[in-house]
Amino acid sequence: MSDSARSEPSSRPADPVTEAETRPNTQSEYRFFADIMLGSLARWLRILGYDTAYDNRISDEELVRRCREEERIALTRDRRLVQRRSLHRAILVHSDRLGEQLRQVLAEIGQFPAPERLFRRCLHCNLPLEPADPRVVEVSVPPYVLKTQPRFLSCPACSRVYWAGTHRVRVLQRLREWWPESPGPVEDHRPAESC
Length: 195
Ligand SMILES: [Zn+2]
Fold this sequence. Notes:
Layout: E1 31-34, H1 39-47, E2 51-54, H2 60-70, E3 73-76, H3 79-82, E4 89-92, H4 98-108, E5 130-132, H5 134-137, H6 143-148, E6 152-154, E7 161-162, H7 166-178, H8 183-186
Parallel strand pairs: 1-2, 1-3, 3-4
Antiparallel strand pairs: 5-6, 6-7
Bound molecules: zinc ion.
Zinc ion is lined by residues 122, 124-125, 127, 155, 157-158, 160.
């Protein structure tokens, strides 16, 4: 997200179509694969803490194979894709507006945004972030940020460093706009100690 030191230094149920039963599940167990047209949705699902694969060069066949093997829910706007019987499960995303897409996906899995899961996953690699020692990340973090931020997280794959920043406030504002009827789940009660 915009708090990445390397990528963006300035700061980042309706008509469900399923091939499998919706199983009782914990939030961390839902995994997605967003198709080529849903890159922004994939990014926001990662912001919300969901394991969301995305590859803008992948073929439909490969996407279907990976969804099946990794038990991922395919997210697509392609009605033909959701009709593939070999898919583990698929959600046909109706809207071209991001907020409505997010609301639909979370409604279909019966969840709301959970503040404790925000900003815990690398937006580029999709991997869970790990705590990082400020002394280790200082070479990739602006001096002011190093002085003012007590805690950093980093990606084990790409080494991008994340910290709490103004982007977090903007993300929370957008979540409140998209879920105005449910202010509780998207309230942020924690100090700015995490990304
Ligand atoms: Zn990464």
